[in-house]
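During the practical work, I worked with a single protein chain and the tokens that describe its fold, as given directly below.
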Amino acid sequence: MEHGWYERLENYFPEHELKSPAQMEELFEEHPAYLREQTDEYLIIYANFEEFIFIDYLLVNPKTRGGGIGTRVINAFKQRGKTLLAEVEPATHANPDTEKRVHFYLKNGFRKAQNIDYTRETADGTSYTMDIYYWSPSSTSERDILEQMQVVCDQIHNFHAKQHYGRLPADPDDVLTWKP
């Protein structure tokens, strides 16, 4: 089931949230933390760091969505005993999928980081905001979450980014802001 993973992402996620297929292939080949698991039921792409796991993309097959598969995947990741991080598009009534994604993470015990603003730009300069959701097996501060997101931006989003996009799409000093 190696084929078709990028097409599955393209059919579900907004274009501005997708990395280029070339950048992702390089991440899989060259970054030891960047991994992909895929079955007919789900696709998850994540970075498994020593202290935390960043869920870059999680997609459940539309034919089986709502059957608990996503929760089983998340629960398996929780068993690893690390903080889990996810970037989630803010919920809007105009896009029911956004509301479903937020509900999914909340239902699975994630919390929205209240003190972190995360705003990125598309290639044409249009700003968009993502929310940071996290789950932790122990008490963790949002300052810790901010530091982990800085690692994600540096090591995952910006991996060979100048070569692929001619810019850094997620310079942590520009895209992440602490709001007291």
